[in-house]
Design a protein that fits this description.
Bound molecules: flavin-adenine dinucleotide
Largest sheet: 5 strands, parallel
Number of strands: 26
CATH architecture of the largest domain: 3-Layer(bba) Sandwich
Strand order of the largest sheet: 3-2-1-7-19
């Protein structure tokens, strides 16, 4: 099992390439017409001679890969076109920190390892940018003018890094950490002792700290607006623990209020006009969904593309999945963007089933974060900040970097946070998602939140007996 799969496996995520590969049965290699036809500009490219179904997937990340394979598994002759921006085999962004730390090669990030995997399945992987969707004509146009007709379309264009909050982000030596190409640029620039500034202290920033420390760089992290780490997925106690852990590992932290701009060098200009030069500045200050190209398509968006439990948009025959989709939220019953790979993979599979005329419904994505920040593992699940009218139990050991927070609504566990403990995180997720009534275990957990495993086993046995 790959290193980056271990925590995912512990949680029972469907996020790892190995599990994906195992759950997709091998099918006979199929050669559809588009795998052998050279695209002709400004013509319909994916023409098929028979009345095979035409599926077009925009994006070539985990959501699209899972959708493409689900379609192929069910229908050996349909036409599948998967269009993505990167001119390389589809890869997992969640593996980037492991590539940066040297645990895997760049090819280790690939979602499917076999040479010619997609061609073998008759999945036409096109490298292009979709500029326009014409829902009336049932086609999409890419940046070289090629047109792809569809019977059913899935949009899985993910998100992109937000711009730096400071002017000067286009200076040489300023990068994001979003694509494999970004990863290569980072590794080509740094060496032991390099001075690196990381702008942002959210999810992406927190998980690349480990890689930077392993590479022996002199690291400065600039906190987010709140002055806290991972403030959008952990409470103050957890965020402060992670911050002090990083500082104890030699990371310098600074507050955003003290920065004015990024200057050539690259350098950070402080509010007293002093300049600090760095070898590299990595911008990790949040993300936006890739939805701009949908303008005029009639597809409804909010912070992402609004979809129902079947991953359908408001426009006939168009579905959306993954980071770009704002779908059913397990905890709130509303619609949220949960930008994590397990959600993308689930979305891709369910959208594919429904594109083929099935009636699959998603139970809703669970907010789920697992971070390894320089060796300190922290997690948050569901309503991690608690719910109105709910109750909370906490156990804090600041000195040893250990923390558990359990949030209840009546006798249900609805959210949780842990720092420095990995013993019961699978159980936490299980209790929240299965909505197991805790009965008198709620009282016991309030007194001692470490009894989660006992509560889970006991309640599961009670339920099995009745
Ligand atoms: C550094 C990092 C670490 C992460 N770590 C974790 C983790 O530990 N656990 C976890 O669960 N998640 C993690 N994530 C998040 C995870 O990578 C995403 O949730 C996942 O990639 C979403 O898959 P997706 O298919 O929806 O989108 P993406 O993987 O973003 O793929 C989007 C695809 O759309 C394409 N595209 C975009 N616009 C267009 C267009 N106009 N035309 C054609 N193609 C287009 C892109 O080229 C790409 O192929 C991490 C992300 C990063 C950046």
């Amino acid at each position: 099992m790959g290193i980056f799969c271990k925590i995912a496996a512990m949680l029972g995520f469907g996020s790892c390439d190995k599990e994906d590969a195992e759950t997709v049965a091998p099918v006979e290699p199929v050669k559809t017409q588009e795998t052998v036809t050279k695209p002709q500009p400004k013509e319909v490219v994916n023409t098929v001679e028979t009345n095979e179904k035409k599926y077009v997937l925009i994006g070539a990340g985990p959501a699209s890969v899972r959708a493409a394979e689900t379609l192929r598994k069910a229908d050996a002759s349909c036409s599948i076109t998967m269009i993505g921006l990167e001119k390389e085999s589809p890869y997992s962004r969640m593996a980037l920190p492991y590539y940066l730390s040297g645990m895997i090669e760049d090819t280790g990030t690939h979602l499917r390892k076999g040479e010619g995997h997609f061609e073998g399945l008759g999945i036409n992987h096109v490298f292009a940018k979709v500029d326009k969707i014409d829902a009336q004509k049932h086609n999409v146009t890419v940046d070289n003018g090629d047109v792809y007709d569809y019977d059913k379309l899935m949009i899985a264009t993910g998100s992109r890094p937000a711009n730096s909050p400071f002017p000067g982000a286009d200076n040489k030596g300023v990068v994001n950490c979003w694509t494999l190409e970004d990863g290569r640029e980072i590794l080509n620039t740094i060496k032991p002792g390099s001075k690196v500034a990381l702008l942002g202290a959210g999810f992406v920033a927190s998980i690349i700290i480990e890689a930077m420390l392993k590479r022996g760089v002199d690291l400065t992290v600039m906190m987010g607006r709140t002055g806290r780490m991972v403030s959008r997925m952990m409470d103050e106690t957890a965020g402060d623990m992670i911050k002090s852990w990083c500082e104890a590992k030699g990371v310098t932290t600074i507050l955003p209020a003290s920065i004015k701009s990024i200057e050539a060098g690259p350098a950070l200009k402080r509010d007293d006009d002093s300049l600090t030069e760095y070898d590299l500045i990595i911008v990790a200050t949040g993300v936006y969904s890739n939805i701009e190209f949908l303008e005029g398509s009639g597809i409804e968006t909010d912070s992402g593309i609004l979809v129902d439990a079947g991953l359908r948009t408001n426009v006939d025959d168009i579905f959306a999945a993954g980071d770009v989709a704002q779908g059913l939220d397990f905890s709130t019953g509303g619609q949220s963007v949960h930008a994590i790979q397990p959600t993308a993979v689930d979305h891709g599979r369910i959208a594919a089933v429904n594109m083929m005329g099935g009636a699959a419904a998603y139970k809703g994505s669970l907010c789920m974060n697992v971070l390894d920040t320089a060796g300190l593992v922290s997690t948050s699940f569901g309503s991690w900040g608690g719910v109105e009218g709910g109750e909370t139990a906490t156990l804090v050991d600041l000195e040893n970097y250990k923390y558990i927070r359990l949030n209840f609504k009546d006798d249900l566990l609805v959210g949780a946070i842990t720092v420095g403990r990995t013993d019961s995180i699978g159980v936490m997720r299980g209790l929240i998602q299965s909505e197991v009534s805790l009965g008198d275990w709620k009282e016991k957990l309030t007194e001692d939140p470490t009894l989660l495993m006992n509560a889970y086993l006991s309640r599961s046995l009670d339920i099995a007996r009745n």
